[in-house]
Amino acid sequence: MDKFEIEGGYPLRGTVNISGAKNAVLPLMAASILFEKPFTLLNVPDVQDVYTLAELLDVLGVKAERLEKGKWRIDPSRITSTRAPYEIVKKMRASIYVLGPLLVREGKAEVSLPGGCAFGPRPVDLHIKGLKALGAELNICHGYICGELKAPHGAEIIFDKKSVGATAHIMMAASLIPEKTRLINVAQEPEVVQLGEFLKASGAEISGLGTDVIEIVGKEHLSPPDGYSVIPDRIEAGTYAVAAYLTGGDVKIDNCIPEHFRNVIDKLKLAGAKVEEGETFIRVTPESDFIKPVNIITAPFPGFPTDMQAQFMSLMTVAKGTSVIKEGIYPDRFKHAFELNRLGADIIVEDGTAVVNGVEKLYGAPVMATDLRASAALVLGGLIAEGKTIVDRIYHLDRGYDSFEIKLQALGAHIKRVKS
Ligand code: UD1
């Protein structure tokens, strides 16, 4: 298992280019099952999750091939299987996205249940409820969600919770049903909006994107746009923004959309960072002489993203004072807190809330990554810790950050990958 070795104490300086968004490209790739023509996607990040989904699509008969950096060709002309096996699905929850498209195209599907994950139970009941409303008959058999969709029809579906996954999933399925579907209380994340735009460009009629009610009039056939470009990764951008301020550096974060992570920018400013911005970049430098404590609560977009909670916690470990971080999406998503404490942080976790008492300094130590964003938080801790930090199990990080250590090295960080 690869590890990162980090020598802390070097401020980040320079420009970093943000890659395409992992959480945007995965639904676009899964949506390929809805089409019968090959197409290309651009600005695809080189992250493990993309390769895992390509592997799953391959099992189903859809050929997904990387032509060059950022450019992938997907050929969904022939579906040869409707079974998504446990061995691949267990690696990545986004695999569930193939269920709906398989049901509407092939009339049947078997997809392994994705199960829980490192930060608590992550049910798929809203996905199932939505597909049933569109006419699917689904059962759980031997750990698989299996069933048929013989008579698909439009529906009005009210989601109990704003779910990125369920919204994207049902939007895909409804796009290939030539009737009207109305989705109420949907997620408003930029990645959901991009999927909707992509499906519109493929021929579906969709309105209300970015609001909490989406209407879809599907089509019998959809035709994918060619050369569609994935939006920049707002979580990657936010991670570098936090790293820049935490290390007291000066970093231009290029090829990002500040509007997509406004809440993170605002919190950074409250913490004492200076953030200049243009349409497609931000530049982060320190304004205050010290990092100020800031409270956050994670919430669906446009609230503070749960995917930035861990990185922000690293920043707060060395703030002058106490910050309270409340997890509004996944109450158990705090394993990184205990690892940050190994670096000398003072964090107490109780009932979905972390109380972070700022300390003078962090000290290098071996730590273990527990999930994707937690890994990034530990790397950030290592960047300011005195001495050497070793972050183990970085396969979590490789799932979602394109060339993380290479981009950090270019900014002056002393970080290297140790193969084992
Ligand atoms: C969540 C985040 C997403 C992030 C991802 C990985 C939100 C709204 N979503 O997405 O931005 O990239 O974690 O860190 O911040 N739920 C159900 N039943 C379902 C589906 C979801 O109860 O069928 C619940 C989830 O457990 C969660 C909430 O609804 O509490 C939001 O769900 P969803 O956005 O789909 O979760 P993820 O896709 O995991």
Topology:
Elements: E1 3-7, E2 13-17, H1 22-31, E3 39-42, H2 48-60, E4 63-68, E5 71-75, E6 83-84, H3 86-89, H4 99-106, E7 108-112, H5 125-133, E8 137-141, E9 144-148, E10 156-158, H6 164-175, E11 180-184, H7 190-201, E12 205-207, E13 213-217, E14 228-229, H8 234-246, E15 250-254, H9 262-270, E16 273-277, E17 281-286, E18 296-297, H10 309-316, E19 322-326, H11 335-342, E20 346-350, E21 353-357, E22 366-368, H12 372-384, E23 388-392, H13 395-398, H14 404-410, E24 414-418
Parallel strand pairs: 2-15, 3-14, 6-7, 10-11, 18-19, 22-23
Antiparallel strand pairs: 1-23, 1-24, 3-5, 4-5, 7-9, 8-9, 11-13, 12-13, 15-17, 16-17, 19-21, 20-21
Helix pairs in contact: 1-2, 1-7, 4-6, 5-6, 6-7, 8-10, 8-12, 10-12, 11-12
This protein binds uridine-diphosphate-N-acetylglucosamine (UD1).
Uridine-diphosphate-N-acetylglucosamine binds near residues 164 and 305.
